[in-house]
Design a protein that fits this description.
The complex is a heterodimer. By secondary structure, chain A is an alpha+beta fold. Chain A contains 5 helices and 7 strands, in the order αβααββαββββα. In chain A, a hairpin with a 3-residue loop joins β2 and β3. By secondary structure, chain B is α/β, with parallel strands linked by helices. Among the domains of chain B are: 115 residues, no CATH class; 108 residues, no CATH class. Classes of the chains: A alpha+beta, B alpha/beta.
């Protein structure tokens, strides 16, 4: 029995669609943000927002270029609150490759930064944590300074890292 | 709101004339050196403005503001000094815009306490609340400063260019080909720049002139070459050059590295206002404030970091003629 060419083509397209939808063939969609209460003391306030590379200037104009140059694909951001005292913002930059995330982290390193072991490496200050994991770069910044702030930020950073 | 035709007519003729007449108007006639052609810049400081924990004492801001404006104008009474600002706008029936900078987000945006203090002083000097607009790129930037969006007529208004929209027609000067905010082109007779002093990862420093990136639709198109000559070119567009006549710069909080976004590890409190009419002179002075802090912190100069604010010298050159970056021609007053 011979099939007409048009039927062969339709069959091939259907097979391709099915194949691309198999687990492991799709690009994994990551929600990097821990929900309220998932990390002790931290609550997520408001919805997360996503900026594609071409629109990143709308979020961090002036700072966007360094991410664009390093091959950022998109940036997700969400606000958090720790025990109603410390407000923080979490930015997760999805780079095109691990090389891109490495470049960004290199730029964040300074003499006075504390190296931290999280993901593929990072740096921390009293009110900020920056780390990379694979193609992701995460920056967490707190707006208030408290003695327990650094530990709280690290706990949140580990919470994000676990979701990447 | 002006019609497009009125706007174009004003941009072409009246505003140019007015700006020429009002150049150095606030400081004019009060000091022989100013008359001799020096650009006056005032740095007013209050070391107690921030507590050791970094909390701003908002009650002290208005006092510092009055000190800055009286020093700048040479007038003893703040009320008289503010009336001179109103006169520079063309009188109390004119609309004055206060262009803030909330781009850096919370923590490193123009302080609302300063902007409200300026608005209060202008109202005392005769401007009706409905003739004052606090504005920036968009609602997000304004909210970062702590403002609430309001377009209610007859009251102090606060909204961004996302509400007003942009001119359809491009304004062009050199490399700057931009669509300007209608708040600048149609609403305001005069704009007072209220930028916040910051290091800038691309341009070196952002303050008076760089604040104008917030008046265009696509500021990201102006970042090439360390924002040089784009910053200078943008400020040369007639309506920008002519309407933005005065700067009350917020140097109460600043970042000396890693800007323009909030870097708590590089935050410091200069506890100062930097005031003047010559935007180039102001930025020259501001640059040195940043450099002194970087030196104190053991950091490279911006030149050594390969990002000096080259646009300042460009703005001062003969082609642009926006002001002076020659220290010998700047009358710096620190109080």
């Amino acid at each position: 029995m011979r099939f007409p060419n048009s039927l062969k083509i339709v069959t091939a397209i259907i097979a391709m669609v099915v194949f691309l939808n198999l687990p492991g063939c799709k690009k994994r969609s990551v929600n990097p943000f821990p929900g309220s209460g998932e990390i002790a003391g931290w609550n997520k306030t408001g919805d997360s927002r996503v900026f594609q590379a071409k629109d990143l200037w709308q979020y961090i104009d002036g700072d966007a270029e360094q991410y664009v140059k390093a091959g950022v694909v998109s940036t997700s951001t969400a606000d958090y609150n720790y025990q109603a005292r410390i407000e923080a913002v979490v930015d997760v930059h999805t780079m095109g490759s691990a090389e891109g995330s490495r470049k960004i982290l290199e730029g964040a390193q300074a003499r006075d930064a504390h190296s931290i072991q999280i993901g593929d490496g990072g740096v921390a200050y009293a009110q900020s944590v920056t780390f990379r994991k694979g193609m992701y770069v995460v920056r967490i910044v707190a707006y208030q300074s408290y003695p327990d702030g650094p530990d709280a930020l690290m706990a949140l950073a580990h919470g994000v890292e676990a979701k990447l | 709101m002006e019609s497009r035709r009125e706007f174009l007519k004003e941009a072409a003729t009246g505003a140019l004339l007015l700006a020429a007449q009002s150049k150095g108007m606030l400081a004019k006639g009060v000091d022989a050196k100013t008359d001799a052609g020096k650009s006056r810049v005032v740095i007013a400081r209050d070391p107690a403005l921030h507590s050791p924990e970094g909390k701003l004492d908002e009650g002290r801001v208005i006092t510092l503001l009055d000190r800055a404006i009286t020093t700048y104008t040479g007038l003893n009474k703040p009320a008289a000094a503010w009336k001179r600002v109103v006169a520079m706008a063309g009188g109390p029936d004119k609309v004055i815009g206060l262009k803030t900078n909330g781009l850096g987000g919370r923590g490193i945006s123009t302080h609302s306490a300063l902007v409200f203090a300026i608005a209060h002083k202008l109202e005392e000097a005769g401007i009706k609340p409905g003739n004052l607009i606090i504005w920036d790129r968009n609602a997000r930037d304004l909210q970062a400063c702590g403002f609430t969006i309001s377009t209610e007529p007859g009251r102090l208004r606060c909204f961004g260019s996302d509400v007003s929209g942009f001119e359809d027609e491009q304004a062009v000067w050199g490399t700057a080909k931009v669509r300007l905010s209608k708040i600048l082109t149609r609403e305001c007779a005069m704009v007072i720049g209220v930028p916040i002093l910051k290091d800038h990862i691309m341009s070196g420093v952002t303050f008076a002139m760089k604040n104008m990136y917030g008046v265009v639709e696509r500021p990201q198109d102006l970042h090439a070459g360390g924002c040089n000559p784009a910053v200078a070119d943008l400020n040369c567009i007639p309506v920008v050059r002519d309407k933005v006549r005065f700067t009350i710069g917020d140097a109460m909080t600043s970042v000396y590295d890693g800007g323009p976004t909030f870097r708590p590890e590089r935050l410091w409190y200069p506890n100062a206002l930097i005031v003047g009419e010559d935007r180039v002179a102001i930025d020259s002075v501001a640059w040195q404030v940043i450099e002194r802090k970087r030196a104190e912190a053991g950091m490279k100069t911006l030149e050594a970091a390969n990002r000096p604010p080259r646009y300042i010298a460009t703005a001062a050159d003969a082609a642009h003629g926006l002001g002076t970056n020659d220290p010998g021609k700047i009358q710096l007053m620190e109080v």
